[in-house]
Amino acid sequence: MLCKIIPEKCIACGLCQIKAPELFDYHDNGLVKFKDSNTLEEHFSEPIADTLLEAYQKCPTRAIELKK
Ligand code: SF4
């Protein structure tokens, strides 16, 4: 599953990291980043798909996008 983050849409609410702390983290200004990289797109495999989906659904601004 391809996950894309759009920092310009992020309001630093923190929900994605609460739902998926193993996947998401924040820059010093509070905007979303992937935990282990500074890229804006990451491919994730099935075992974490449910966690990722939950974070995606909780994001209030659609700053997280998913594609199969
Ligand atoms: S849930 Fe969305 S708006 Fe909130 S910190 Fe994560 S990416 Fe940003």
UniProtKB/TrEMBL annotation:
Matching entries from Pfam families are given as:
Fer4_13 (PF13370)
* UniProt-listed InterPro entries: 4Fe4S_Fe-S-bd, ET_Ferredoxin
Task: Give the required cofactors.
Answer: [4Fe-4S] cluster
Q: Which organism is it from?
A: Vagococcus martis
Q: Where is the 4Fe-4S ferredoxin-type domain?
A: 1-29
Name of the protein in question: Ferredoxin
